[in-house]
Here is the input.
Amino acid sequence: MMKNLIYLSLFLLLSGLTFTSCDKNKNPQEPSKGKINLLVEHSINGLPVEFDKLIYENEAGNKFLLSEIQWFISDIKLHKTDGTVILIGDDGGEYYVDSDIAASLSINPEVEIEVGDYTGLSFTFGINDKKNKSHRFVNPPESFMFWPNYLGGGYHYMKLNGKWQNTSGQTEPFNFHLGIGQIYDSAAPKSQWTDLNACCKSDHCEGYTPDSKTMPITGFIQNFFEVEFLQTPISIVDGKTTEMVLEMKVENWFKSPHTYDHNIWGGSIMQQQEAMKLGCENGHDVFILSPKAIK
Amino acid sequence: MRKITEGFLIFSLSLLLFSCKEDERVEWVTTPYTFDIPFAFPTKMNIPADNPMTVEGVELGRYLFYDGRMSGRTHPDSLMSCGTCHIQANSFEAGRDHPTFQGGFVHGITGLQTPHVMLPLINLVWNQSGYGWNGFVHKDNPNTNLRNIEDFVRLAVFAEHEMNSDTTSVKQLFQKIDGYPELFFKAFGSSTITFTNIEKAIAQFVRTLVSANSKFDRYLVGQEQLSGPELNGFMLFTTEEGADCFHCHGGFGNPLFTTHLFYNNGKDTVFNDILDRFAVTADPMDKGAYKAPTLRNIELTGPYMHDGRFATLDEVIDFYSHHVKWSEQIDPLMHHVLRGGVQLTPPQKEDLKAFIKTLRDDAFLTNPDFGRPNKFPDDK
Here is the structure.
């Protein structure tokens, strides 16, 4: 009996030393860390998108279907009450989202974030001008998003592909592609125009004339934009991952402040800065951020 | 150039194995095969974990690729190898000028024609999206026998429209051919030939077939300038309001000149082919969809489309300009469909073709490492 008590005492003593030792190893100055995970959902009228079904109608009254959505989100930031902004990761990162790739719908920066209560989150839709350079991504699927150098280089911010029912009742493909826009020199003499085809029949096609000529491009316009949720409380908890749902309300790309009509802009807009501008201005209220869980 | 050594994947082998004589020990050592990743090419490669690239495996694979006894037969009239149809000078397709396979339509040892025309063997080590016109061989396939290039070797041996043979005959035949057991030992550590190792060796060789030295590649790194028509063709290639080829066929940012993905490009309005993408996905929107092949060396790889309906590049460009057909399944990227196509003018068609011809890689077409060996292992 006595022997057992001695063993028990030794055990408790050693255990105590071990715990004390662990506590001493922990640097009290070192802040606790947690992570964040954005779960992406694509919706129309509050419900998950049903792809390839001609069941939707946009603000302009165009009946449409969606086939795929591919886009970049980058430079995710957390905001504090004192106005401090924390970029998640040293360079903010760029994340490719693809409605056909389930794994891409979970944006999980493997970056440890200081625990605490944050007042909001913001990110860049697309990629900013400093980082959006050709050959930044050499591996697919990101590399498949490249934006031709002739049109400004870098990468598409988004490919939103689908079809709409045009004024003739025909189902016509549209490529709502957003990226770097071009400035065409409408004052250049025709002798300087390039012999590039003019399939774009919209009256709004910039740089084109009916005789298959294209005006010279004199500059480019960065269309990426910031999306901010500055009053969405987010708690980062020690050793946990805070999950937030990032919902893209697809119908809003065509809704406000501009009513976007496919019959006006046609099926392709990579060379129509005016259309991309409308799209990007509509993009500010396309997203909703809401809490999901802390795991 | 970034140099990536696939040898990282390889547990450098140095095993001591017993040979036929029990007391004699033979050391088996393999040399990792290294890839030089060309400028702007992907760094991620599709190499199965159970078939790391070795110099010895590639050497063996090259012999097997060109050895007509892969048909499992030895009679001169019954020989057939991968190299019978996959001809280096034609970018590893038969080519329209082939003396036996007229018009480039290949058939097997029995005379049966293949269901689809050939696809080139170029840069397949960077294909992550499935092999074949409909991608039925892909790395996530629940059927573990249909996952990679290795499996195509077995399919080719079995297929009536190819070698019409069996794996047992093939492996037993090669076991008896002088020189091969030693090469298998060097590559895989066993001189007992298995069909699995035959598959692995040929797949390793095929993965070495890298094309990255065309005129366009040299333009990409600033070593050579494109001509005026070629540059205009390049602009047409990479603009939506031009020929709009780049979304499916790559370009400056995707020098593979393919996405390896599958598209209904508007060739037909009714889809009866049981080997289209729908056969793989069961998605009705994939009816009539096929892989967008690489455009590298495309001038040599006619006839074109999965069924070889177009004999020349001119016919293909005409199709995309004026004859694209609408169907419910048409890919959204074919946004010019209601106008019948991209409406290129005759000079624009010539410029586009001039650019596409800059993708011809003569160094690839004549690289002796990819060619038929001068001697086979049993040649004296």
The domain at 2-211+366-370 of chain B is CATH 1.10.760.10 (Cytochrome Bc1 Complex; Chain D, domain 2). Chain B touches chain A through 48 residues (CB under 8 Å). Chain B is about 30% helix and 5% strand. Chain B has two domains: 2-211+366-370, 215-359.
